[in-house]
Amino acid sequence: xxxxxxxxxLRLGLLCIVAxxxxxxxxxxxxxxxxxxxxVQDAVATEGVSDVATGxxxxxxxxxxxxxxxxxxxxxxxxxxxxPLVKIVSPKDGAVVSGQQTIVVDATDDxxxxxxxxxxxxxxxxxxxxxxxxxxxxxxxxxxxNYRLVAVATDAAGNSAQDEVVVLVQGSCDxxxxxxxxxxxxxxxxxxxxxxxxxxxxxxxQDDYGITEVEFLVDGDSLGxxxxxxxxxxxxxxxxxxxxxxxxxxxxxxxGHEAFxxxxxxxxxxxxxxxxxxxxxxxxxxxxxxxxxxxxxxAKASDDIGVVKxxxxxxxxxxxxxxxxxxxxxxxxxDFDEGAHTLKAIAYDTGNQMGTMQIQVTVDRTPPEVExxxxxxxxxxxxxxxxxxxxxxxxxxxxxxxSVEYEIEPVxxxxxxxxxxxxLSSVPSGTxxxxxxxxxxxxxxxxxWFEILVDRPPTVAFVAPKDADIxxxxxxxxxxxxxxxxxxxxxxxxxxxxxxxxYDGEYLWQTEYKKAERKLxxxxxxxxxxxxxxxxxxxxxxxxxxDL
Length: 548
Description:
Blueprint: H1 2-18, H2 20-23, E1 56-60, E2 72-76, E3 85-90, E4 96-97, E5 100-108, E6 113-120, E7 123-128, E8 134-138, E9 145-155, E10 160-169, E11 183-188, E12 194-195, E13 198-206, E14 211-218, E15 221-226, E16 231-236, E17 243-253, E18 258-267, E19 279-284, E20 290-291, E21 294-302, E22 307-314, E23 317-322, E24 327-332, E25 339-349, E26 354-363, E27 369-374, E28 384-392, E29 397-404, E30 411-413, E31 418-423, E32 430-440, E33 445-454, E34 459-464, E35 470-471, E36 474-482, E37 489-494, E38 497-502, E39 506-510, E40 516-525, E41 531-540
């Protein structure tokens, strides 16, 4: 309503300029000017209100002095050149999101907002034409990573403004801990590109457990799959209608999880001859890599007619250009701060058209730190060791390895908690070193050591007497006891009561004259209080002496 009132008052103001004398009494208000001679009739009638947006406002009357209403004269307003104001209210820049989201946009304009378009990277998510400027967004299926959301507000005159945020989409993981592919990206064609003839769609995809295939689709129709990087598929656009089309790639990992990326391109084969943009692909390093020292940056470029050169940029600063295959340059990262940096390659074809690929890498010169948190005593340990470590890094801990030095293969852990039960069954008794090794994304490592003692319990067995023997008088108790690291102490029990220590494996036991079954037991104990035992039963039965 306020916009309509503004337009009415604007028309009234113009009438005041055209016919000051006639409408002097009516210009102060929002109503109708004098109409005694018919010169001005209902100056704020609704006719012509819709024309305000175009700048033309019909005025009843003759500005030369003929105010009899013989002709309408259009007074042109200054064109509307003021763009709307637009801001993405939710999600916030830097927010971590997952699942179902609502994108909320605040958009205003002095003459009204016609439409708000929301883009994910270069692909249109949707358009909103009425308030509230909100759009549902399902992040399911997106790879974990940073994504750019762009809101473009456009008014009736075609003026537009945009706002953007970058959010971190957290891909959902299953109960095994496997998550969707962490990176999938369409390299060519770029969003908004005009394409013709046969176009090579190229994509990259990364996953901790491996990518099995990447499927290529245009407007939902599959072009096929590629199972090897770089993932590519040719698209014959001559079989596609002129206009905008959605190119989509779906990456699938080894357990069937999916992630996708999409761009919108314009197909136009009406010009006869066709010259597509060149393709360029940064082969080395990979998107998301952590680097240090001097790095080779290598690109591959192709074009339907010919590639002239490839330029290399670091943080948007031109480093060098190369016009021979392989296209490459060296980057000394020591001249750059630790942290994220952008590598870009631009390929030029014979028509001076450009193809671009951009990746983000991280310069990391700082090694991680690792500490063994379990065990906190040297042992002894027998066949299993519950080991644990904590690790930190200024960027990312890629993995932690737990092992017993030189004895068993390391257990590799890629996410916290860094805990594992180590199998010591093949480790001989004695002193050994538990090793925890942390590796960061750049390959820097750190180690922590902790000495442990591996020792199995002693062994013990009765040599004599045997189980179920009949004994009497003084009986020699002969015991075989052993330990891998020390000589164990042996205790001798009769019917659960400690009788004595057994030294050197032998003990002379004086039996009673009463006939009875006795339970004999020996317990061997090593210096770390580990024990083993053996039991037998004997019958004490003294022979009866005959009377002479």
